[in-house]
Amino acid sequence: MMHLSRFATLFLSCFLISFTATHAQKEQQIPYVNGAELIDKGIKAHDDGKYKLALSYYEQIPEGDTNYLTALYESSLSNISDSNFSKAIDIAQKAIALHSKDKRQLLLNIGASLDYMGKSDAAIKMYDSIAVLYPHDNRPYFERAIIKYRAKDYKAAEKFLEQSLLINPLHFRSNFLLGSLYLTEGRLTESMLALSTSLLCTTEIEQARNPISFLSEISTQTDEIAEYYNNRSMDNRDPAFDEIDEIIHAKLALDKGYELQSDLDDNIFRQLQVMMEKLQYDSNDKNFAMQFYVPLYSQIYKNGQFEPFALHLFSDYGIKVVDKVAASRKGKSRIDEVKNVVYPYLNNIASTRILDYEARKKAPEKYHYYSEDNTMAAGVFSNKEEQKFAPGLVQFYQDQSLVAEGNYGANGKKDGPWKYYYVSGNLRLSEEYKDGKIINEATSWSSNGIIARKVKFDSEGEDTETREYSDGGILESLAIRKGKDEYEYTFYYPSGTVRKKSTYLNDKLEDGKMVIYFENGAKQKELSYRNEKLDGPYVSYFENGRIDEKMAYADDKLTGPYLSYFDNGQLAIEANYIDGYAQGTHTEYRYDGSLYYKKSYNKGKADGEATYYNRAGKPYGTVVYKNDRIISTKFTKPDGSVISGGSDNLYVNIYNEYGVLIRKVPIDEKNKVEGKASYFFPFGGMMEVTNFKNDMKDGTSTFYYQNGNTKVSRQYKGDTLDGYYKYFSDYGGLMTEGWMKNDQSQGTWHNYFSNGTLSRDFYLLEGALNGPEKNYEVTGKLDYIVQYDNGLMTGLTQYDTTGKIVQQSNFDKGIGKYRLLHFNGTPGLECDVKYGKLNGAYTIHGGNKDLLEKGVYVNGKNEGEFETYGIAGKLRMKGSYTDGEKDKTWTIYTYDGKPESIYHYEKGNQEGVDSNFNGGNLRSTIEFHNDDMQGKYTIYGDGGKVAAVLYYDLGALIGYSYEGNDGKLTPMQDVKNGAAHIQTTYGNGAKALDWNFDKNVFQGMQKLYYSNGKLAEEVDYDKGYKMGVFNQFNPDGSKYYEATFKNDEKTGANKYYDNKGKLIFVVNFEYGQMHGKAQWTDATGKTKNYWYYYGSLEQ
């Protein structure tokens, strides 16, 4: 059911990776699936008759794969061949529900499966519905004929076959089955006509064997054939064919005295000739064979084309004497001549669908086939040679599906509304024409029904305005025609604010200045173009309005001074360029304005000394370059002693101002990085190890936490992320794993809970969610599934703890209501879906209807004010988001309403001075810059007394001090390599703080005291994460908070007290989530019970 914990983190990341952890690293990888290869293997196995093997390939393809629908289609076929008919139907129905482009064939598969299961009535109904959906498809008629034929309902089968052949006269199986049916009824002439015509419809030897075999048996009048003839009923006799049937049965043409009009003497040829010789067309005889076959065969015989016709029928099937004559120059020429009689005749039937020959000759052709793209047009030509349509409706079909329809005017040009469709039936494009010119407005839609493009036209068919939309239907750009071949383009952010404007003349960007804006309307860039190249001043800005970069271009190349700044206005980089290459001194500064290093360039290559400076402005390191190659390095410790000097042909070692190695890079003789490059935290711990080959990342790249545990493991190929990716918690548990291909997430990905169970199973298509995103409870049971189509939500299904569906929602065209329910059916999370993503205000309520969270989504990202609430409706957290990232001030409150922590953010990074409180009293302040601790971390005891001051630089602990007897801070005591046992006292000499650090993180029991000697706080850590007890106390020694942690997650009973030590709230935790009974005591002493289910307040 709906779990608050899952959706309390929704505001942090509703898109890709949820950072929950697993108990132990999983060694087995998720298999990478190449859907296209598996399809090919499956088809080959199917063709080899290995249907179960074929199915095993198809079943490996996940739903998000672009080959998934093809896999379902092929799987349906293989299940039919393997006699798994019910499964074939289920799979076909699933594929149809997912809007497969193979809908027609899948419906036919369902019909065939029903037929094989003995459910002929149901199969007939299925084919009836297919005939309605695809009115120009002969297959539904043919399939119904098969069912009737097997049931020996020959008359019904005959009618269906006749209809099939009127639609598609060149359908081999319909001609063959009709010939077989005629033969069963003893109708020899009609059978020979249909069987011979079937040979005109195939070039496959395997197909041709049966009709040739039947023709041979008819020619020699085998016992079985003779029996059919002798037992024929009066209903199956036609005076027009009786005499010919008798001649064929009597085998008169087999007599050597019968003159054969061919040098090839064969029984089939003889019987075929005598049949064609005796055929007489009778316009009054409405027999199908008379109207369908006889006009063609009698005409061929009258034309003296019997032999080339016979050669055409039987050539290319391995009959050597026939193939030899047919392959001769004369044979080819004569066969081509007869083809010019045969196929126009049959095509005329397909084009008119009129059986009566005399009526057909006069009828206009309504159906026109184009074999090159398997398209058919339904409409009448006013001029067949020019293929100009007469006034009226014309419809175009491709692969039997309607793809376009509209009217043509008197001049043979499009006129009025025109509509174009996807194979699924969804509208693709809507246009309007007048005398062949497009007018008014044309609108395009994506296959999911979401708008993609709108174009306005004037009366001359010239476009005047074009609107382009995102996959979700959000306006992305607007192009307005200002004059002949001149267009003004405006590009928008998803919120609708302008990103940039530009003008194009004759498809070229107009010279001049361009301004690009942030989403909040502030300037982002000012630049100029000339001849579609950057030329002139170029200035970029931070969102706060300060300059980010300042430079100039000439003919698309950097030239002159280059200046880069920090967002506080301090200069970051100062350099110079000539003709696109760095030239002269390149200088970099720190955020506080102090000089970091200087480097010399000559024509884009480092040349000379690069000097590193400490914050006091004194040099502590030099690297000597010559023609971009490092010649030597020299670094010194703060005391002046040399720690690196001379040249090292294997590695280049770079140190920071504290004498700590921060970079160790292998360089080969060509000055290229080759081998394992190591990068270190400022305190000296390993941060990254990446393998290089020929100056490019290639192989394994591993990132580490400060405590030494692996953070990320990923693979590169030629500087591109390509291979398996794993993300771990700081205590070593696997959090996320999946595949990267060409720098993008691709394939199946998994997230895990801290107990090792799967929390999320999803598929990424080039980084976008595609297919089902399966979300699980910490118990391992399926909770809910969100369906995606290339990043857009299309549906939601929620399950109860027994696996039954609780509710389903479809987000048709990316619109709907996203809602998750509690056990008692009350809504938990509620938010609108628009543009295929969460949009608008959302709320999360408990099962008791208490408000727990509220905020706003804009295109799937949190935006604006955000609040969460605890027991009794008390505010627990308040903050704001900008573009999905925490921004500005965030405040966390205790359960009794006092501030607990105040954080400051800029674009998701902690920035500024954060504060923490205990019982409303200040406990600590921490200075942050760019998400790193930078500056002072001041810890307070009671009454605002300073217990200690820790000093950080780029996140590394570099020293500490505390108040002396004089009330002033003692001189900073250095901390090296992130390891220290810090013990401090208050000004009165009382113990203040006893903390341990190893590898720059907390290690062991950390204790803080009040100035009266009483314990204020004790927290147990292991490698930087909480592991064990966490107790906080009031100055009088009474409890304020008590909890137990495991792997940085709360576990067991958590108890919250007021400033006087009175218990106000107790709740149980499992895997970091509130679970089980909770009890709240208000100020009057009244208690109230609550119940949580893995983070979700249920009652």
UniProtKB/TrEMBL annotation:
UniProt cross-references to Gene3D superfamilies, sorted A to Z: 3.90.930.1, Histone H3 K4-specific methyltransferase SET7/9 N-terminal domain, Tetratricopeptide repeat domain
- Protein source organism: Taibaiella lutea
Pfam family, any one: MORN_2
Which keywords describe this protein according to UniProt?
Answer: Signal
Task: Give the protein's recorded name.
Answer: Uncharacterized protein
* Signal peptide span: 1-23
